[in-house]
Amino acid sequence: MKSLFYLTTFIMALFLNGCATIIKGSDQALIFQSSPEGAQVIIDGVPVGVTPLTIKLPKNTSEVVMVKKEGYATKTIPITKHFDGVTALSFFWDFSTTDFLSGAAYEYSPNSYYFELKKNN
Prior knowledge:
Elements: H1 2-16, H2 20-23, E1 27-35, E2 40-43, E3 46-50, E4 53-58, E5 64-68, E6 75-78, E7 81-83, H3 91-94, H4 97-102, E8 106-108, E9 112-116
Parallel strand pairs: 1-9
Antiparallel strand pairs: 1-4, 2-3, 2-5, 5-6, 7-8
């Protein structure tokens, strides 16, 4: 009877720890580079630093990145997200709701962005 208890506990632990929130987390590091360097990086209207920049962002919030530098044309692009397959692991115990609420159900792809800035005329 004890062995059944231990086996059940082990199997439950596997399922409870198998979600994207625990395995990969709800944040992801993104890298922003530009030529020339020293351009201001603005994510969803909030300045976050200058290039080259590596920053951890919550996976469920960021939508647009803007890079600007005086004397150069500003560039704006969407930050793309894709479904993270690890989320499927938690479907059986909570229908992946934890991953969707925390943002871990998605991942930024690509995680590195390069901006070639053009001089203003």
